[in-house]
Amino acid sequence: MRVLVIGAGAMGSALTVPLRENGVEVAIYGTEYDVELLKLIEKGEKHPRIGVSLDVEVFYPDELHEAMKKADLLLLAVSTEGVIPTFRRIKDDVDGKSMVTIAKGLLEVDGKILTIPEFIVEEVPSLASMVVAITGPSIAREVANKAPTRVVFSCEDYGAAKDVAKLFETEFYRVTVSTDIVGTEITSALKNIYSIGIAWVRGYEERKGGIEMSNLKGVIATMAIGETARFVEAMGGKKETVYGLSGFGDLIATFRGGRNGMLGELLGKGLSVKEALEELKRRGVGVIEGYENAKKAYKLFNLLKSQGKVENHEFPLLTGIYDVLYNNRDVGDVLYRIV
């Protein structure tokens, strides 16, 4: 078995560790944005984002066809914004190969809002039962350094997910299998958005002179989980998925840090969206997926409202996050409004 990781970022690279632990042959194909990383990996140096060296074969941007030809399974490990252009470059070479996705977000394609597996299946319908999505609390550096981790592998076909999970599962990287790929993917996309709202509180505490606001943190976190469960249910997924690893577990693992949390904290301190994004850019922080996804999630929310599947009053936090990000509302005003 040979797995091709498409993208040399932190998580895709980290997942080569459990694969190699199981004796799986692994290669990494890098896009034009990954060339410097590929050079480091090829030299046997530590990947700068995860702190370990990788035992893999390396393919450069102009070697895509060769890399695809040799692969039995594909791990799509680019950012959410990179999914559409990257998949369209490789789709003619997929040739019945199963595909694993790790990006967490929503895509807008021809006016429709889709999860990443939905987009892949629209492009290549034969992959309907062959796309496996990884979700759950999974910090790349922790996985790469073999810290105990448990995630969810979801697919329409339980057997397909189980077979893929066997390639990855180790003593330190455990896998739960699910067929609720709608629930896990919607939950993961919304988690990035709600992480912004939860992190508001850290910034707002500082803005108010350092007063701890544990009460407010509890309220916002509870609202985030409840709204996510309602959204998943309206989309045809299972509410219980939200209370498991893909929802509650992932939220706990990431809301204290990460790019979405950094944005939320700056907004809570009173910075405008423009100021906060400029500050993060100055720090060298990349794409804030929660910011990009909030607009798409809000569009999907309005579609669900028009279909009578949800009501406006059920999503005060989502509406509040959207108002701060896109309607120039102040975090403090929104917090008092929604609580």
Topology:
Layout lengths: L1 E5 L3 H5 L1 H6 L3 E5 L5 H9 L13 E3 L4 H7 L2 E4 L3 H11 L7 E4 L4 E4 L2 E4 H8 L7 E5 L4 H5 L4 E6 L3 H11 L4 E6 L2 H27 L6 H21 L4 H4 L2 H10 L3 H11 L4 H10 L6 H18 L9 H11 L4 H8 L1
Parallel strand pairs: 1-2, 1-4, 2-3, 4-5, 5-8, 9-10
Antiparallel strand pairs: 6-7, 8-9
Helix pairs in contact: 5-6, 9-10, 9-12, 9-13, 9-15, 9-16, 13-14, 15-16, 16-17
Largest β sheet strand count, sense and barrel closure: 8 strands, mixed
Mean pLDDT equals: 95
Would you identify the regions where 5 or more consecutive residues have pLDDT less than 50?
Answer: none
Q: How would you describe the shape?
A: globular
Approximate helicity band: 40-55%
| Total discrete domains | 2
Strand content: 5-15%
Distance linking N and C termini: 52 Å
The CATH superfamily of the largest domain is: NAD(P)-binding Rossmann-like Domain
- Work out the number of β strands: 10
Radius of gyration, taken over Cα atoms and rounded to an integer in Å: 20 Å
CATH class of the largest domain: Alpha Beta
Q: What is the annotated CATH architecture of the largest domain?
A: 3-Layer(aba) Sandwich
What is the helix/strand order? EHHEHEHEHEEEHEHEHEHHHHHHHHH
* CATH level 3 topology of the largest domain: Rossmann fold
Number of helices: 17
**Structural class by SSE content:** alpha/beta
The main sheet orders its strands as 3-2-1-4-5-8-9-10
